[in-house]
Amino acid sequence: MRESAPTVAPSTDTQPRLNRRQAAKVRTRQKVLDAARGLFAERGYEPATIRDIAKGAGMSTGAVFANFQDKAELFEAVLTEDMAGLAEVMLNGAGDGSTRDRLVNALTAGYHGSIDQLPLFQAIVARSWFQPVAAETRQRAATQGLTDVISDILRAGIGKGEIKQDADVSLLTELTWDAYLSNYRRAAYDGWTVDQLADHIGRQVDTLLAGVSAK
Amino acid sequence: MRESAPTVAPSTDTQPRLNRRQAAKVRTRQKVLDAARGLFAERGYEPATIRDIAKGAGMSTGAVFANFQDKAELFEAVLTEDMAGLAEVMLNGAGDGSTRDRLVNALTAGYHGSIDQLPLFQAIVARSWFQPVAAETRQRAATQGLTDVISDILRAGIGKGEIKQDADVSLLTELTWDAYLSNYRRAAYDGWTVDQLADHIGRQVDTLLAGVSAK
């Protein structure tokens, strides 16, 4: 994911052409974001200082603050960009196959695409437990794309007749997402590899789907 | 829970009798713990300062540091005491009835017994995502009593023939515990009441048990 993120361009075709000064501003902003991403991914939130982020971007702390109000805003910008990238990784990873396989493949692709940024993920979840409501609302919006991948796979499963018509998609999505996130702690503290995470989420998905399988 | 915790006495009968100086030391330590609990429960971890904890206990910061090395150690001591108390609350709350009802009743009792300490719970989970491995190991030991309540209810359900013999108790316990914890965020950000939490964990337990019900 770290490789793909910088290629994420300003996102709409309707965006007006930038003049030279505006283009320079966008480039500077992206440089700060990339440096911040690298440091958050390596250290997490607290130990990543604005000073080191500025150093990593090859600019002054003043230049950083010209683009972002504070570290929290910088973190949110990285998070928003990365979660959008990760949702795409999951979606592409789902592939064809049974609902069970599509879910497990998507989530495994998610682990593959994020494991080298483990401290960033730990910081995202830790902060989600203690932040102002407005920040929480923005964070939920940023992770919505990821939970949508899960919901869409489940809904497609209902459409194909693999999952019971009356399955509670939103509840199943929530339980799957909680399990997915929780497993990162195994990677952080127990040294689990992506293969171990994949195996575990596979068994968790089996358990979650056992009661709603139409077979 | 806040009411019951101070009554938790040094725990074994084999403990030698304390002389007057030792007894005073135990009382001082407990006073600090109670003041810290109150402040953590009200504010969470970061905003609770040693200075305010000392003030709450009616002593100097030096006296606090004579008993606890730092705020982290103090937090861990509160957490260990409170999780033991909460495990008991859950166990007593389980009551008789079906495996489903016992699980939901135990977890609902857990919400009842902890909701007035919501910021403490938020701090516990937030810290669990970013702490030294040794601290994480101690925290897992402290919450083991809670997950044991869930496992024991599930195993009893297998014994009664309500849950399939081959159900994966450890996986189900983990999924139930993740759901239980995750719901605290609804209380923190969405203002959910204990009744709403109870209703939600009920639906989550139904989903988790649907695939392992022996009926």
TrEMBL record, chains A, B:
Residues 1-25 are annotated as: Disordered. Pfam families: TetR_N. InterPro entries: Homeodomain-like_sf, HTH-type_TetR-like_transc_reg, HTH_TetR, Tet_transcr_reg_TetR-rel_C_sf. This is TetR/AcrR family transcriptional regulator. It comes from the Bacteria. SUPFAM superfamilies: Homeodomain-like, Tetracyclin repressor-like, C-terminal domain. Transmembrane segments: none annotated. Gene3D superfamilies: Tetracycline Repressor, domain 2 (1.10.357.10). Residues 49-68 bind DNA. It comes from Brevundimonas staleyi. Keywords: DNA-binding, Transcription, Transcription regulation.
